[in-house]
Structure formats: structure tokens, C-alpha cells
């Protein structure tokens, strides 16, 4: 390896028990000509085939590193990831790094480390690969009853599983749909449709016990500009509505959203979109946009109790009584949150508004309400669009209506759960 060349890195994510370790074992046993280094959270769990462990490995074990007889390097993440990968590149020779992101971590931020930190000088992201438990995904999003509804990390962090599954798919370059043996042909087709709706240009491979094609897995799959489904729907809708004066400003004024996703702020204008994709299993999407605030209780009643047909929804909320706060909203399966995301542009001092608008001439600006709006994208399976629109419309209030509500947070970054999955497994 030329040490000055950037080393490709593949980030492997997926929920607990999806089959990441099984896939890593397959990868290490079938590495072929690849000199792979694998960085995992818990090496013991990889349980690499004994025959692969090099005779002298006892000598080289140090700092949690084991060298295998096939040239692969296995190491355990002991200190922070950035330090570990920089040290690894300095001290060892290998031509591809695979990093296992822990079961509840978001692959996006792990991948960003290789773009923005000291590690960027040595590495290039080759791909974000998400291992999906096809059974669990079908149970969560295709009308089953998931056995698990929350994900718990080793440090006790708990997150709704549906959020995590959606995030992991929305940021992936490749989805390995594992546990193919546990789902029917119909189920896998539905799962694939949902995955494509969440991430339109995604590459999906089906596996049983992680037997993915190693060359494919390690190939250059990364597209930082790949579209995220909900954003693609919004953009398609904005284009359709252009003649009636609807622009589109969401790329520019997305305050950091604590439920944010890896690539969602990418510039995906060149990609095809999923708008109104009525495919085999009736995946549909639509945008609800109103220049009026929602009553806080009404928003909670509707968005906190969406029909099961809605797989994913996301957007901005104008909430009556909190007229100056822009709320972002994010729902995945049974969990839904609003996050206070800072002020609307229309709530800023006038000179700041002017500056912003000069820099963003494309912003969808209303003469009276500026950028304030309720704008929600819904993606799901055979959603009763008319019923949902009617339910939301019933809770619209006049701009400026007086409402006293103490529950929605107003400080930027704070969130409020509209719906949380039941159960604690
Ligand atoms: N039926 C079936 N079981 C599988 C498949 N792939 C993996 N498993 C089993 O699923 C369980 C979890 O697999 P792991 O590879 O440990 O999953 P993981 O994602 O590494 O799990 P964590 O390390 O806990 O995050 C194991 O018992 C595997 O044998 C598959 O394709 N089909």
C-alpha cells in the first residue's frame, strides 16, 4: 500500500442482532486478496475462526489488535474512534478499513468522522452499509407486531427502534437485507418497497447469514448526495408547484435537528424522486402544506396517533401559541417527536431577514407570514390521504390565535415526544 493514498473505509451499521457480526465473520473468512482491518466494539463477539488467527498473534496482540493469518487485522475500539483509526493507519498496513458502528449508533456521524476529523487525511469513505434484520423490519413497518420496540446500547442509551431503523436506512449506500430465510417473498417485496421509499437510489442485497459478495461490499458505493426519500418528495412537490409560486427553502434553513440524519442535507437535485410512487405494494407519499398554525393539542392528537399505514413522516410545524419557534417534526413507525429548532426567518430582526433573503432568493416567502408554515411529508403504505389531510385541517387556527401551551419546548434543540413506542424490550 502506498501510505500516502487514502484508505477506503466502509462503515457497517445495523440494529442489535441484525447480523453484523455474522457478516463480519463472513467477510474475514472470504477476504481473498483484500488486506482488511476491522474495527469492532467487542472483539470477543466476533469470535473469529481459530484457524484464521495467526500463530504469532499472541505477540502482536497489544492495544486490542489481533492479526489473522490471512492478513486481516482485527481490533477492538478502546479509546475514541478518531484516535484509533489515525493510529491504525500509522502503525499497520492494510488496504481497507471496516468499522462496525455499535447497534444504536448512527452510521452518518461515524462516517462524517472520516470526512471532517484528523482521520480525513488518511481515509476516504467507500460506503455506509446497513445490515437490516428483514424479519424485524417487516414486523416494524409492514404491519406486524415487533417483538422489540426500543434499542438499548451497552451504555444504557435507549432509542425507539423504528427511529433507528429508518435513520440507518436513510443514510445508507447499501442495505444488506439479512435473515432472508425468516420472511416470505411477499414480505421481502414489501420491505424492499419501504426501503426504496425511504432511500430512493439505495442498493439492496438480500442475504441469509450475511453471505454478501465481499467485492461488492468493499466497492466504492458512497454517494454523499444520494437522496433521502422524504426530502425527495418535498423537492418533487416544490418543483410541481413552482408555477403557483411555491419555492423551496428547506435545504437552507434546517437548523440542526437532534433527530437529524446523516445525509439529509445533501444536494440531491440531480436524482430521481419517489413522489407519488405507487409501486407494487402501494407505497405512497404526499406533502401537507398550510400557511397556518396548528393547535398544539390537535397536532399532538393527529401526529401522535397516526394510522399504521404511515411509515415515515417529517417536516416543519407552525404551532399556535409559539409563533416564533420553528418546530421540526420527525416520525418513524410508532415514534414521533417535535424539536424546537430556533426561530423562523420571519421572526428574526428585519435586517437579518433581508440578509437571509438576499442570500436565498429561492426561499418560499409569503408576503404576510414569511417562511412560517406547516409542511409535512408523509410516506407510507396505502395511506388514506384525504382522511389525514382532513384531520390536520380540523386543527388549523388563524395565525396569531391565542393559545396557552406549556408543553412544547421553546429552547432550540429541546424535543417533545408526541408518541413513543410502548413496551421496553
Ligand atoms: N435465521 C437467521 N439467523 C441469523 C441470520 N444472520 C444472523 N443470524 C443470527 O442472528 C443472531 C444475531 O446475529 P449477529 O451476527 O450476532 O448480530 P449482530 O448484528 O452482530 O448483533 P450485535 O452484536 O448484538 O449487535 C445470531 O444468533 C445469528 O446466528 C440469518 O440470515 N438468518
UniProtKB/TrEMBL annotation:
Stretches the record annotates as Disordered: 239-270
Catalytic activity: GTP + H2O = GDP + phosphate + H(+)
Span of domain CobW C-terminal: 283-396
InterPro entries for this protein: CobW-likC_sf (IPR036627), CobW-like_C (IPR011629), CobW/HypB/UreG_nucleotide-bd (IPR003495), P-loop_NTPase (IPR027417), Zn_Chap_cDPG_Synth (IPR051927)
Gene Ontology molecular function, alphabetical: hydrolase activity; nucleotide binding
Cited Gene3D superfamilies: CobW-like, C-terminal domain, P-loop containing nucleotide triphosphate hydrolases
Pfam families given in the database record: cobW, CobW_C
Family label: Belongs to the SIMIBI class G3E GTPase family. ZNG1 subfamily.
Protein name, entry field: GTP-binding protein
Organism: Haloferax marinum
